[in-house]
Amino acid sequence: MTVITRGRPRGFDVDIALDRAIDVFWREGYDGASIAELTAAMSITATSLYAAFGSKRELFERAFTRYLTIDMAYAVRALEQDRLSDVFRDYLFDAVEAMTREGRPYGCMSVQIGGSKTGLSPAGNEIREFVSRARDTGYKRLTTRIEQGRDDEGFDLAGMTPAGIAEYLVSISNGIAVRAADGAERDELRGVVEIALRALITR
Q: What pTM, to 2 d.p., does this model score?
C-alpha cells in the first residue's frame, strides 16, 4: 500500500486513487476527463491531485502504466509460455477474460484512448501518441517471441512472417476489445478466438 501525505491533510492510497482514475480516463478519454470528475472519483481534492501527481498528464501516465502492469499482465504471461501455440492461445483467450472483467469497463483502455485521431486537443494528441508507442512496444515484443518460436521450436509459420502473425494477433485482440465494449458476450468472443486460432495452429 502506497500512501501519499501532503502537509497537514490526511493521506490517501495512491494505488486505489490510480485505479479510480483509470476508470474515468477509460470511460471519458483523456480530453473528456475533467479534473472535477477525476478528483470526485479518486476522493481527493484538486490540490492533493496536483501535489501527488503534478498534472493531469502525469496522472494519466501513472494510471496508464498501472493499467499495463495490472490489466495487461496477461499479454506478458502469454509470451512466457514455452510453446508458441500456447502463446497464441493464451494471448487471445486471456484477452477475452481481461476485456470482460467485472469491475472494469469492458474492452481495452489502450484501444479506447489510442484509437481516436480526431477532435483531440494538443494534449490529447500527445497522450494518444504516448499510448500508441506503448502498443507498438507490445507488438514488437510479440513479434520477437514469434521469431524465437520459429527458430527454437521449428514452428511452421506456413509462409507467414513473424511480424505478419503478430499483426494478425493484435488485430484480433483489438477487435475483441471493440466488440467487448459493444457488449458482446464472453462466450461469443471465445468463439471468435477459436476461429482465429485455426489459421495459426493446424496440429
A: 0.87
